[in-house]
Amino acid sequence: MKKVGNHNSTSRKMFFSLALMLTFSLTSIAQVAVPAPAAEVPVATQGGDPVKGKELFNSNCAACHKLDAKSTGPALRGISGKHDMPWLYKWIHNSADLIKSGDAAAVKVFEANNKVPMTAFPALSEGDIDNIIAYTSEPKAEAPAAAVGGTVAGAPQEGGISNAVILGALALVMAMLVVMLFLVNNVLRKVAKANGIEVAPKEPTMPIWKAFAKNQFLVLVTTIFLMLAGAYFVYGFLMQVGVDQDYEPIQPIHYSHKIHAGDNEINCKYCHSAARVSKNAGIPSLNVCMNCHKNIAEVAESTATPEYSKAFYDEQIQKLYTAVGWDKSTQSYTGKSQPVKWVRIHNLPDFVYFNHSQHVTVAGIECQTCHGPVETYEIQKQFAPLTMGWCINCHRKTEVKMKGNEYYDKIHEELSKKYGVDKLTAAQMGGLECGKCHY
């Protein structure tokens, strides 16, 4: 009997590939991320309560002091090692009296901090001061070593296997299947040849494009479909000319509306104050930023996100300091400033007139109506299409607020009778007239 193929060789290859795959899979499953033990932070051994001290520090001291960096006043971590408690009691209760008495340490601290007088806190008891000092005596917690910008791609996830390992195993299985199919096909051909079986040759077939061209019905249907689809996409493209909805440029200084308007609940009109009284909302001056960031040189650890680390946000604050010429170490302006080239997001055509004060102050329209939920935006974008149809639709459905606005009393009385309604919309008040929005 004629021997067909080398079956031992083929089987050996298949078993070797299967063993390799199983070994690779078991090894990858064993690579489960084990969380590192948390570093123990020693607790301060002061007589006060550091938890209560933190509350007192945030309500009384945080406006001018930080634990680990100089602000209006000096850094306070470890202050108990520089001065004794009786001196601290006198300094906190009334620093001005201590300076007037000629105390050398008090005069030195006063002069080292640009002779800025410290607010007196006579209401704080010695127990309260003990609590604050206990809080400032706690050692600085070490930040966990983590990759900037979130989880490293391909790293094992806690309690599971990384996506890269799973994809690699699947790719290996698919490659093995292809090899096995090729080997099976090769063996079958050898068996057929050994048994004198002839494999029927493939009959030539008509190319699919020729068969399609001969079918007139399919050609007609396809032509109609392509014409309708082309008209649809051309119409959609032309309707988007001049529309920059979802435009989201990268700014020279990363400003997070989510942190400012969302987490810290800063009112939009605090920064964009011109929106209440002017045609334009205006770009806030950097001096407005410095109202807060003069004493906020870094963000809290909890502010960091998987996309943006604490170091990234601190770097943006440093860009602000560079632009305005602020030296955080000396708490003073250097006089060397740099312009910030902000990228404009909302830009109406020159022939369109839009007045922010008319909408914000008179009509009482919320900023989110046109600009979207800015309190959730990490990067500001254009929310609305700002097309003519979008504005007209808003005028048609928005009711005019008459209460407390004597300017509209007479007009409302006349138009409400004309239209037979109790409340008028902006469109019924003339909001659709061409001259309202176009020069």
Automatic annotation (TrEMBL):
The Cytochrome c domain, residue ranges: 48-140
Keyword Metal-binding attributed: yes
Protein name, as recorded: Quinol:cytochrome c oxidoreductase pentaheme cytochrome subunit
This protein's UniProt keywords: Electron transport, Heme, Iron, Membrane, Metal-binding, Signal, Transmembrane, Transmembrane helix, Transport
Signal sequence extent: 1-32
Database matches in InterPro entries: Cyt_c-like_dom, Cyt_c-like_dom_sf, Cyt_c_III_dom, MFS_trans_sf, Multihaem_cyt_sf
GO molecular function, one term: heme binding
Protein's organism: Flavobacterium degerlachei
Spans traversing the lipid bilayer: 164-184, 217-238
